[in-house]
Specification:
The complex is a heterodimer.
Chain A: H1 2-11, E1 12-23, E2 26-37, E3 41-45, H2 52-59, E4 67-72, E5 75-76, H3 81-87, E6 88-91, H4 103-113, H5 118-131, H6 147-159, E7 165-169, H7 177-192, E8 196-201, H8 204-210, E9 213-218, E10 221-226, H9 228-235, E11 239-244, H10 250-257, E12 266-268, E13 273-277, H11 283-294, E14 299-305, H12 309-317, H13 328-333
Parallel strand pairs in A: 3-8, 3-9, 6-7, 7-8
Antiparallel strand pairs in A: 1-2, 1-4, 4-5, 9-10, 11-13, 11-14, 12-13
Helix pairs in contact in A: 4-5, 4-6, 9-12
Chain B: H1 16-37, H2 39-60, H3 75-92, H4 94-107, H5 110-115, H6 123-150, H7 158-183, H8 189-198, H9 200-205, H10 218-226, H11 228-240, H12 251-254, H13 256-283
Helix pairs in contact in B: 1-6, 2-3, 2-6, 3-6, 3-7, 3-11, 4-6, 4-7, 4-8, 6-7, 7-11, 7-13, 11-13
Classes of the chains: A alpha/beta, B mainly alpha.
Chain lengths: 342, 284
């Protein structure tokens, strides 16, 4: 295994094999394997608590794995973390920038800590500030910035050392739709420039939009892997969602829908919702309504929608992607911020 | 990233110690800029010691006789005696700023960012202790002016006075390391606020800062005599030429300056080691 690892390591930007990380009794990462070729974007998709952030923190040298091999940029992370730090950039879930410093001062500080001379740091800071539309706010303290501006400055900071490998931990969580769109464009540009990107996300849409390779993880393990198309094929096509009126039976509704569905229907008693995978576009909607009518089921709402992360999880694991909550270390690190961590 | 811009990273070679100083200076500068941008913090760190001066000088002053001082001088002698005590207490409280500052950085993502950079890890701590000690220069300046107004004077010339101020800064730097070590154990800034202050009250009150040691029970007096705050304050009284009260028999009291320097050096060695180790461990 070690020899295979050596070979893979020289061919790929990120290689992790059999990664394990415990926090006390909690197994945050449990035998995770990951290979990301140079110049590609890999999306790590999973619910809160799946082990996404822990994985990124191990790859970015912030945590030490309990077991497994890790190499980033062809360098063994455990043996030479300092060499790894020279080639990576990290943007965490929360802005790692200094409130009281200006945008320019923040970037300049990071550049100097990358051990670069001011002949590099100053023009590079200006270049990034311009590129991320922050040049006008460059000399204002960050505490006057909006959420989207902070996120862009945070990303600029991780680009100060021109990393060839970039880790983005939930880069758009908490952003408004416009800022999210901007962020996606920026990440797209980076990839065009040849940067290898590993990003984590809870949104299938985001992984779909940005990553050619998507790795779905749950309970610290990879449960599916592939392009977004191949994953969608695994998950199946659209979902038909029916909200059943209070006077009708959910079971009868589920049985009636069997004739139009591609797989097993799931029933959520609390919201009186029956969800079932379907194919065939809008005609299936008509058929479904007719079938429900014949069965005498009254409905409040019916809709056709694209598969979501929940569907991926339901299909792949048989359980809903539930919010597992914060892990011990994460909770300690991120107190007072909702403890949202994966 | 292979981008369109001109700037390209270069490889700069420096010995490890060189990088530690470089990175420490960058972090120090960052902390000082942040401090200047929040004038409230500076303001309140000045107000507390000034209030102490006024309280002790005018409320307790007349009630605390200084053994060995001219009884006629009374409250005025106490004010001369008091000021080095206030200096000592104030620099000791520099530790709390380090505890809170570090806990705050840890609670934000900034320490994670630092850890992902090829910088010297311990520079975060060296920068924190340096900037908190430098802040004390400002505090000591304001305190000295306040002291001058209430009647405190420097009697022994510039060299001795400079030595006294240097000792105070050395002590501030020392407790700042202890504060860092505590801060690294804190789970949030609220706890850090409490824990950062809790140990400082016994540390500073179990000393000769405000009252002569001769009035204390024997056991307490011995502890207080070996308390580095006492030797620091006594050193300052000697160097400034202020009343010292009766000097104890212990080596720490008899050789106050030497004991202060030695205990600071030992404490820095211990707590810098512990803090750096803890900082590295917190990563994994």
């Amino acid at each position: 295994m070690a020899d295979v690892f050596t070979q893979r390591r020289s061919d790929n930007a990120i290689v992790a094999e059999g990664l394990v990380k415990h926090f006390g009794t909690v197994k945050a990462v449990d035998g995770l394997d990951l290979v990301v070729p140079y110049g590609t974007v890999c999306g790590l998709l999973g619910p809160n608590g799946a082990g996404k952030t822990t994985t990124v923190r191990i790859l970015a040298t912030l945590l030490t794995a309990d077991a497994g091999h890790v190499s980033v940029g062809g360098i063994e992370v455990l043996k030479h973390p300092d060499d790894v730090r020279r080639v990576i950039g990290l943007t965490g879930q929360y802005s790692a920038i200094d409130e009281y410093l200006t945008g320019r001062e923040n970037l300049s500080m990071i550049g100097r800590l990358y051990h670069q001379p001011s002949s590099y740091v100053n023009p590079r800071a200006v270049e990034l500030l311009e590129r991320f539309d922050l040049i006008e706010a460059a000399d204002r303290p960050v505490r006057t910035y909006s959420g989207g501006m902070r996120r862009r400055l945070d990303l600029s900071a991780s680009l100060m050392g021109r990393p060839s490998i970039l880790f983005l931990d939930e880069p758009t969580t908490g952003l408004d739709p416009r800022s999210r769109q901007q962020m996606w464009e920026v990440i797209g540009d980076l990839v065009k420039d040849g940067t290898t990107v590993l990003l984590t996300t809870q949104y299938l849409e985001e992984a779909d939009r940005l990553a050619e390779q998507i790795v779905v993880i749950d309970h610290g393990k990879v449960i599916a892997e592939g392009t977004s198309d191949s994953l969608k094929n695994d998950v199946g096509g659209d979902r038909l969602e029916v909200i059943v009126s209070a006077d009708s039976s959910l079971d009868v509704a589920a049985a009636a829908l069997a004739s139009v569905s591609d797989g097993a229907a799931s029933v959520d008693v609390d919201s009186r919702r029956v969800t079932t995978p379907v194919s065939g576009g809008s005609t299936v909607l008509v058929e479904a309504v007719r079938a429900l009518d014949v069965a005498g089921v009254h409905i409040d709402d019916v809709a056709l929608r694209r598969p979501t992360l929940d569907d991926v999880f339901l299909t792949l694991t048989g359980h809903v992607a539930e919010d597992v909550g914060a892990q011990p270390v994460s909770a300690k690190k991120r107190r007072g911020r909702g403890g949202k961590e994966a | 990233m292979v981008s369109t811009g001109i700037p390209t990273p270069v490889e700069m070679k420096r010995p490890l110690l060189g990088w530690l100083i470089h990175d420490g200076a960058v972090v120090t500068q960052r902390n000082l800029i942040a401090m200047m941008r929040v004038p409230e913090v500076v303001f309140f760190s000045l107000v507390q010691p000034v209030i102490f001066v006024l309280l002790f000088a005018y409320v307790f002053g007349g009630a605390i006789p200084i053994p060995g001082a001219d009884p006629e001088a009374g409250a005025a002698a106490y004010r001369e005696y008091l000021m080095p005590g206030i200096f000592g207490q104030t620099v000791a409280f520099a530790a709390a700023a380090s505890t809170v500052g570090l806990a705050e950085d840890m609670s934000k993502g900034i320490i994670d960012r630092f850890r992902s950079l090829p910088m010297t890890a311990s520079a975060v701590l060296f920068g924190r202790t340096a900037s908190d000690a430098i802040r004390q220069v400002l505090v000591l300046t304001v305190l000295s002016i306040t002291g001058f107004i209430v009647g405190w004077r420097i009697h022994n010339g510039v060299v001795d006075a400079a030595a006294a101020y240097l000792l105070l800064l050395l002590f501030a730097y020392t407790v700042s390391w202890i504060g860092c070590w505590i801060g690294l154990h804190m789970r949030n800034t609220e706890t850090a606020n409490t824990a950062g202050l809790a140990w400082l009250f016994p540390l500073t009150f179990l000393s000769n800062a405000f009252v002569p040691l001769t009035g204390m029970p024997k056991v307490v007096q011995t502890i207080a005599e070996w308390n580095p705050v006492s030797s620091l304050v006594l050193s300052c009284r000697q160097l400034f030429g202020n009343p010292t009260g009766i000097i104890g028999d212990t080596w720490a009291q008899q050789h106050a300056i030497a004991y202060t320097v030695i205990s600071c050096t030992v404490l820095i060695a211990i707590f810098a080691t512990l803090a750096v180790r803890k900082y590295r461990q917190t990563a994994s």
